[in-house]
Amino acid sequence: MAYLTDIEIAQQCEMKHIKEIAKTAHVDEKYLEQYGNYKAKIDLSLLKESKKENGKLILVTAITPTPAGEGKTTTTIGLADGLKRIGKDVVVALREPSLGPVFGVKGGAAGGGYAQVVPMEDINLHFTGDFHAIGAANNLLAAMLDNHIQQGNALGIDVRKITWKRCVDMNDRQLRFITDGLGGKANGTPREDGFDITVASEIMAVFCLANSITDLKERLSRIIVGYTYDDKPVTAGDLNAVGAMTALLKDALKPNLVQTLEGTPAFVHGGPFANIAHGCNSVIATKMAMKMGDYAVTEAGFGADLGAEKFLDIKCRMAGLTPDAVVVVATVRALKMHGGLDKKELGTEDLNALEKGIPNLLRHVSNIKNVYKLPCVVAVNRFPTDTDAEIDFIIKKCRELGVNTVLSTVWAEGGKGGEELAREVVRLCEEEKGDFTFSYSDDMTLTEKIEAVVKKVYGGDGINIMPNAKKQIAQLEALGFGKCPVCIAKTQYSFSDDPTKLGAPENFTVTVKNVKVSAGAGFVVVLTGDIMTMPGLPKVPAAEKIDVDENGRISGLF
After folding, report:
1. What gap in Å lies between CA 501 and CA 423, rounded to an integer?
2. Three-state secondary structure call for residue 521
């Protein structure tokens, strides 16, 4: 049987006018700023003026990702459609896709099969221009920083201690390390420089954690761009860049309203990576989804050790949010890969490989339940090749932890395939009260916070801090950043900092190589392993398959 591609399914959908979707989401037309017929931004005043009680917050996360795929976004969308089908008032909140993965290797972030948000091509490409605004604000600050140095350097910035990079929303390894300002005195000061991908920029993190335009301005002003000759931090506020940066971001800060294939309202807004940033959509969009629906379904990137840890320890801490239930997505195929099975052999029943791989799922589930103390359900994203024996094995193992397992077939069936999961989520929200706890407290030292995450969440023995990182931690604590949460950048492919350690590795330590502050975002970034803030394209980029016909219809976009 020939399956339709994601884009073919999306293009067959008869979308409802965005005014109709706004009505479903209880958004009065006066707050709606239309971008054509199927996209709109929502004015921020709605959050202040709405009298509705906040709805329940559902977080969707997953096991440690493998090349076999888990379908977290697909499950998030399918669950929202499932909740709608069983009569619930629901809004979904997702991140915007980055052009890097869209043209690179990973694919878009608009779901898949019959659980997608549309217009899929727009969402995966320029959408409403938010990422362009974020890139422009980032690069304006870079330009003003270098101009300040060129015009006499009144602040005494040491060009060897500049930490601010330019950014572009594209995988472009050529730009990772560059030398600029060449060509004589009139063309700037020669220095080493580099680009990050836009989704790794601190502006993206600031944008996603800001509660309002005022909060955005305050956060932007705190961004540290470098240090003076006597090691004093220099901020965007010192460079008088904040007003102009906010002017570039003021419209982008308004959440984008779109719809699922089944007409469920969806806010798609912001998009930091979860292995190098905090991996969640904007606080404003999440709060708006909770304000507009009785249930708000959101996701956090990569496995629960990355996205969910940062959602719970950073986003919820800063925004005062408490999730009512958590869904952990798994596939039999991915668990068999964690058990050491080759990608080509995933279609055959192998309980032995599943037994070796399932500790990965069980550790994530135990973390949600026992570290963060939240109600939890496992959603098994079922593939046609999964056998009943394999599914029963997972159900039995999760039951031992006191967690139910529900089969999800949302990729093939849309909301219909998410109804059972929706019922279990409603049950968790109504019958099981969590006792939400962070994995570390504010008053611990930065070292203690990193250690707490490594021991409690990753299952490691402890941390090994390189001499350089020790110095950085001491400097940041002396500058008053010791109370910040930690945002640990590590590989998404393992609980450890070694991508080859699959399953649920034990007896490992995590090496801390570099520590730097994102003062605007309000967290301290801890770099482990070989983490790239500017990815490269693969040998055969997805971009090679994308085309447009004479009518402007795009093909090859997944």
Report:
1. 35
2. coil
Q: Are strands 256-260 and 265-268 parallel, antiparallel or unpaired?
A: antiparallel
Q: How far apart are CA 526 and CA 463, in angstroms?
A: 12
- Phi, psi for residue 62 in degrees, rounded to 5: -155, 175
d(CA 148, CA 155): 8
Whose CA is closest to 555, among 2, 3, 1, 4?
4
What mean pLDDT is reported for the chain? 93
> H/E/C letters for each residue in 172-201?
CHHHCCEEECCCCHHHCCCEEECEEEHHHC
Enumerate long-range contacts of 345-349, CB under 8 Å, 24 or more apart.
346/68, 346/385, 347/385, 348/385, 349/387, 349/389, 349/390
Instruction: Spell out the residues 6+ positions from residue 398 whose beta carbon is closer than 8 angstroms to its own.
Output: 361, 362, 365, 378, 404, 405
The Cα–Cα gap between 124 and 110 comes to: 7
The secondary structure element, H or E, covering residue 91 is: strand 90-94
Confidence of residue 327 (pLDDT cuts 50, 70, 90): very high
Q: Pick the closest to residue 428 from 93, 60, 31, 150 (CA basis).
A: 60
Residues 506 and 71: beta-carbon distance below 8 Å: no
Contact 133, 252 (CB under 8 A): yes
User: Of the candidates 299, 294, 291, 292, which has an alpha carbon nearest to the alpha carbon of residue 268?
Assistant: 299
Residue burial 525-538, b: 16+ Cβ < 10 Å; e: rest: bbbbbebebbbebe
For 377, the enclosing helix (H) or strand (E) is strand 376-381
pLDDT tens string 11-40: 888 999 999 999 999 999 999 999 999 999
- Residue 320's contacts (CB-CB under 8 Å, 6 or more residues apart) are none
Q: Which residue has the tokens 């998410």?
A: 418
Q: pTM here? A: 0.95
Residue 71: what pLDDT? Answer: 85
Do the beta carbons of residue 365 and residue 328 sit within 8 Å? Answer: yes
> What is the DSSP secondary-structure string of 473-506?
HHHHHHTT-TTS-EEEE--SS-SSS-TT--SS--
- Mind telling me the catalytic residues? 72, 74, 95, 106, 274, 302, 383, 411
